[in-house]
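Tokens for chain A. Residues wanted.
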């Protein structure tokens, strides 16, 4: 037996965090990202409709398109419906919340599994996640208010990122923004495989 498997998904990606292009994480590969930060709601709704999400999940997303926000309670309800779906499928699931470094609380779930790599269990988890949760959670995490909180945190941590990079031999621009430094830190991590200045600054999702 292994411990609780956290399956809540953190979706705050570099393309969406600071460029005002939240839709880039959900648009098709051949589509141009929208410059409207509120376009994320319509984009995620279209994806959810195509994927056959539940009526409840679609209703939440349609309301988000209209009101341009996904309240935390709507995300919590989506997570709770997912837990019920999993429990009805015989899984040991429970509601769970995570708070990421910049303060955003992400409603989600945890599943206790008995074996590693059980394809049937993985399929059940994925089915409930797609039906009830993932699109609402995506819109919640990528809405403008969520991205703004991430932006503020990255800017706040800019001196920490810069010091870490310099300590590891990476030259930086003294006038670089937090976004620019985070991008450089991300590239440095990819290049070195070991120097993780984002983690040093407490940035969990980038």
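Reply:
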């Amino acid at each position: 037996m292994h411990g609780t498997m956290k399956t809540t998904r953190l979706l705050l990606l570099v393309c969406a965090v600071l460029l005002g292009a939240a839709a880039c994480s959900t648009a098709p590969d051949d589509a141009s990202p929208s410059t409207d930060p509120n376009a994320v709601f319509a984009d995620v709704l279209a994806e959810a409709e195509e994927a056959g999400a539940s009526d409840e999940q679609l209703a939440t997303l349609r309301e988000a398109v209209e009101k341009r926000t996904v309240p935390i309670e709507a995300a919590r309800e989506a997570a709770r419906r997912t837990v019920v779906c999993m429990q009805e499928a015989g899984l040991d699931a429970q509601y769970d919340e995570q708070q990421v470094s910049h303060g955003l609380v992400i409603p989600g779930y945890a599943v206790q599994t008995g074996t590693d790599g059980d394809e049937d269990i993985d399929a059940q988890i994925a089915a409930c996640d797609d039906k009830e949760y993932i699109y609402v959670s995506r819109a919640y995490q990528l809405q403008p208010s969520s991205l703004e909180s991430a932006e503020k945190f990255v800017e706040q941590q800019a001196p920490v990122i810069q010091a870490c990079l310099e300590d590891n031999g990476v030259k930086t621009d003294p006038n670089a923004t937090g976004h620019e430094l985070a991008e450089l830190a991300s590239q440095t991590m990819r290049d070195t495989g070991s120097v993780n200045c984002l983690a040093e600054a407490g940035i969990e999702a980038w």
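The beta strands are 4-6, 92-99, 105-112. DSSP finds nine helices and three strands in the chain.
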